[in-house]
Write a structure and sequence with these properties.
Blueprint lengths: L1 H13 L10 H14 L7 E6 L4 E6 L19 E3 L7 E2 L12 E3 L7 E2 L12 E3 L15
Parallel strand pairs: 2-3, 3-5, 4-6, 5-7
Antiparallel strand pairs: 1-2
């Protein structure tokens, strides 16, 4: 019951705009981890908006949803953190991430990825962190990160 109560409190905080006294990296990491934990409790996608003194952080989580494809996904252009961890994605194609100009963090770890199409990340100009560990990738296309 204690864990459930803490998760409900965190969910309440994350579902509203929260003004933080400072935007320290430690505080943002805490909210990032809470969003990951909470992601398994709602419909996909889940959005959490966290307001800091300087800007909003938009997190969209589709964690552990058994997704096999992203074809046809329509994304909110404000998303900065996209969590696709723990699905059943086997490949990613050009266009899967269209409409995400502000995306800085992309979590694709713990999927079944075997193939990444060349250019799949080309329309993500703000991407700085990409998690690909625990997949089935053997090779990557030349220039995938150019």
């Amino acid at each position: 019951h204690t864990i459930r109560r803490h998760l409900l409190v965190a969910a309440t905080l994350l579902s509203k705009k929260i003004c933080l006294s400072h935007s320290s990296e430690k505080m943002l990491r805490l909210f990032w981890l809470l969003a990951i934990v909470l992601a398994s409790t709602g419909a996909c996608p889940c959005r959490f908006i966290l307001a800091t003194a300087s800007s909003d952080i938009t997190i969209c989580s589709c964690r552990d949803r058994l997704l096999t494809t992203l074809n046809g996904s329509v994304w909110d252009t404000r998303i900065q953190y996209l969590i696709l961890r723990g699905n059943k994605l086997k490949s990613l194609s050009v266009g899967d991430f269209d409409g995400l100009p502000n995306l800085t963090h992309l979590a694709l770890d713990q999927n079944q990825l075997q193939f990444l199409q060349s250019g799949v990340f080309d329309k993500l100009p703000s991407l700085i962190v990409l998690y690909l560990q625990h997949n089935r990738l053997v090779t990557l296309p030349p220039g995938i990160f150019d």
